């Protein structure tokens, strides 16, 4: 009982405040997951739900040992990166650095900047055309860029007052209940992580952003993190928000910061 009270108190700290203390928030989150899965090491959370279930992990590794279903799409993304001149944009000229830098808070613009947002801006500058937000070309290019940073560690910085405010808004959205089911992102991916929802095991929020964009068997293709956000809102019977809107960008800043110190991975398959 004492252990349960300690865990609840730690997570209550996350929910009950609008603070922007990334280190304290992450410590509380890691402590929660350590309490429910004591044998899972922090570094293994880069594998998401596959860190929890051996049967799922075996299937995951079998897929990776063959030809991963996203491999061709990611290679195409690399070709598109060059084809559309994205290497000519300073923000994307070093792909590995670009993945590690994003998301970040742009004080001059007063907004969170995501990797996909930067790709969209660069694509428009180079081609004069708009780029989608959730799947297809943008997911392929973003996945290829992220692959170049595989092995690097997530290191989201929240330093300025504007960044702290955006982080606090994103954190609040993550823990807020909504939709007909009156659920939050945290209900599934913090409090009930590792448990089953129908036939699926709920993934832990820790490590969620290490493998984005992700390939989901459900989608039969790649999708951005914001596509996943939209799917989660639909599952709650809540109205999805358009990808790259401020509320999603703010939540991404919080969400990614919670995985600081975990390695970016190119093993992006998820069920």
Class of the largest domain, according to the CATH hierarchy? Mainly Alpha
Query: Which CATH-level-2 architecture of the largest domain?
Result: Orthogonal Bundle
The computed structural class is mainly alpha
Principal-axis shape equals: globular
As residue ranges, the low-confidence spans are: 1-10
Give the CATH superfamily of the largest domain: Cytochrome c-like domain
Total beta strands: 7
User: How many distinct folded domains?
Assistant: 2
Name the helix and strand elements from N-terminus to C-terminus, one letter apiece. HHHHHEEHHHHEEEEHHE
* Strand percent estimate: 5-15%
What's the total helix number?
A: 11
Give the strand line-up of the largest sheet.
6-5-7
Helical residue percent band? 40-55%
Biggest β-sheet description: 3 strands, mixed
Give the overall pLDDT as a whole number. Answer: 93
CATH topology of the largest domain: Cytochrome Bc1 Complex, Chain D, domain 2
Radius of gyration, rounded?
A: 18 Å
Distance between the termini: 35 Å
Key features of this structure:
two-stranded antiparallel sheet, disordered N terminus, 11 helices, globular, mainly alpha, three-stranded mixed β-sheet, Cytochrome Bc1 Complex, Chain D, domain 2, 2 domains, 271 residues, 7 strands
Task: Give a description of the structure.
The protein starts with a helix and ends with a strand. It has a three-stranded mixed sheet with strand order 6-5-7. A two-stranded antiparallel sheet has the order 1-2. It has 271 residues and is mainly alpha-helical. The model is unreliable at 1-10 (pLDDT under 50). The chain has two domains: 2-67 and 156-270, Cytochrome Bc1 Complex, Chain D, domain 2 (Orthogonal Bundle); 71-147, no CATH class. It contains eleven helices and seven strands. The protein is 48% helix and 7% strand. A hairpin with a 2-residue loop joins β3 and β4 (200-201). The chain is globular, with a radius of gyration of 18 Å.
């Amino acid at each position: 009982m004492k252990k349960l009270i300690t865990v609840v108190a730690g997570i209550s700290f996350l929910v009950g405040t609008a603070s922007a203390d990334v280190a304290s928030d992450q410590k509380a989150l890691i402590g929660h997951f350590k309490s429910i899965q004591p044998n899972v090491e922090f570094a293994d959370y880069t594998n998401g739900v596959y860190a929890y279930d051996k049967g799922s992990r075996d299937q995951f590794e079998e897929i990776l040992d063959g030809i991963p279903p996203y491999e061709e799409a990611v290679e195409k993304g690399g070709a598109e990166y060059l084809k559309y001149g994205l290497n000519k944009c300073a923000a994307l000229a070093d792909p590995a650095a670009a993945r590690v830098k994003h998301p970040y808070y742009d004080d001059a613009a007063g907004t969170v900047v995501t990797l996909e947002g930067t790709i969209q801006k660069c694509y428009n500058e180079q081609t004069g055309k708009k780029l989608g937000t959730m799947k297809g070309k943008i997911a392929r290019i973003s996945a290829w860029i992220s692959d170049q940073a595989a092995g690097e560690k997530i290191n989201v910085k929240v330093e300025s007052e504007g960044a702290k405010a955006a982080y606090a808004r994103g954190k609040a959205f993550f823990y807020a209940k909504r939709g007909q089911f009156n659920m939050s992102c945290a209900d599934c991916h913090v409090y009930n992580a590792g448990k089953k929802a129908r036939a699926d095991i709920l993934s832990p929020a820790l490590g969620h952003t290490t493998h984005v964009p992700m390939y989901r068997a459900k989608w039969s293709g790649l999708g951005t993190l914001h596509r996943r956000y939209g799917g989660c809102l639909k599952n709650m019977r809540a109205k999805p928000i358009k990808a790259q809107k401020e509320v999603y960008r703010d939540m991404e800043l919080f969400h990614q910061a919670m995985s600081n110190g975990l390695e970016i991975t190119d093993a992006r398959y998820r069920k």
